[in-house]
What we know:
Layout: E1 2-6, E2 10-12, E3 26-30, E4 39-41, E5 47-50, E6 58-66, E7 77-82, E8 87-90, E9 95-99, E10 103-105, E11 108-111, E12 122-126, E13 132-134, E14 139-142, E15 146-154, E16 161-169
Parallel strand pairs: 1-7, 9-16
Antiparallel strand pairs: 2-5, 3-6, 4-5, 6-7, 8-11, 10-14, 12-15, 13-14, 15-16
Amino acid sequence: SSLDMYAGKSLLMLAKVNSDATNKRVEWSFFDEDDYEIASINSTTGLIRAKKGLTDRETVTVIAKTTDGSEITSVPVTVTIYPLATKVEINEDSRITMVKGAEDILTATVYPDGDLGANQKVTWSSSRSSIVSVDKEGNIVAKRRGTATIKAKATDGSGKYATIRITVVNP
């Protein structure tokens, strides 16, 4: 099983102890000693704190065991830690003109990008959806004459976003 988190953020792990365990207290740790260079884990509560300032995507493997050595009904969990976005860019000009009724697809890149980069998920929004609507995939529809601003915002809590201004004209 796997989970995602972001640099500088926390994640609370939960475990289900077998019902026949005599001691239900759980001890949390990382599988690999090198993981402690990337994050910390509270051995009692299971709270993981990813280090701030990570510039590459990293993974840690979390294990849990009861303090009496009984088994836990779970497998080790891989946690992917993404660096926070430093910039978001919409892959279009900063201003475009569309004819009423036209459709297009916007894409966004979250930096740092690449195999070890930030999570590429963004939320899309329109300042005036009655003029230009946008869905969660970046598909836009020019509905009526006017101007709207479309925003792509990183979902990692960094607050980074990019905008594009779209003017809709009549055919």
